[in-house]
Write a structure and sequence with these properties.
The protein has 161 residues and is mainly beta. The protein has one domain: Jelly Rolls. The chain contains 1 helix and 10 strands; from the N terminus they run H-E-E-E-E-E-E-E-E-E-E. Strands 1-10-4-7 form a 4-stranded antiparallel beta sheet, with no helix packed on it. The longest helix has 15 residues. The radius of gyration is 18 Å and the shape is globular.
């Protein structure tokens, strides 16, 4: 009984430390991330007045063979507008050591998507994330990308100035 009370208190303490978090969700990627597989998140922003910072979060393991990552991120607004961005992120140092946090094989990366976004339309937003990796000199994309284990999307309140 005492251990379960301590565990619950620890979970509450950890959760309360992240005061900037507005939305944070992850979805697992099966063994390989197929180029046509889209990871989707349904977002209900808390208001239409305040600015927020948006992030793509991902976890990778040692099976990831590249020093960078290309993603296509699409945001669909409640009233039909769509914004689509092709983004590139650095994933490793020149010596091959992965960036991100974590002591074990899994590294967690918090990647900037957009800064100071005001969700001016009330309602449901959809965020779709797709890998867009290609090998140097090749036209066709990598069909099955290995080493990405989870994709997430996060909304935060900006840091107080």
């Amino acid at each position: 009984m005492r251990n379960s009370v301590l565990f619950i208190l620890l979970v509450i303490l950890i959760a309360s430390c992240d005061s900037k978090q507005v939305y944070d969700s992850y979805k697992s990627v099966p063994n390989k991330w197929h180029k046509d597989s889209v990871i989707s998140f349904k977002i209900h922003p808390p208001d239409t007045l305040n600015p927020y910072n948006l992030y793509v979060n991902l976890r990778n393991n040692n099976d990831y063979m590249y020093s960078n990552l290309f993603l296509i991120v699409e945001m669909k607004f409640p009233h039909g507008k769509t914004i689509k961005d092709t983004l590139e992120y650095k994933m490793a140092k020149p010596n091959g050591e992965f960036l991100g946090t974590g002591f074990a094989e899994i590294k967690e990366n918090k990647l900037w998507y957009k800064e100071n976004v005001v969700f001016q339309e009330s309602g449901e937003y959809n965020v779709n994330i797709q890998q867009a990796m290609r090998e140097n000199g090749k036209v066709n994309g990598i069909v099955n990308l290995e080493g990405i284990t989870d994709i997430g999307f996060r909304i935060e309140k900006p840091a107080a100035k």
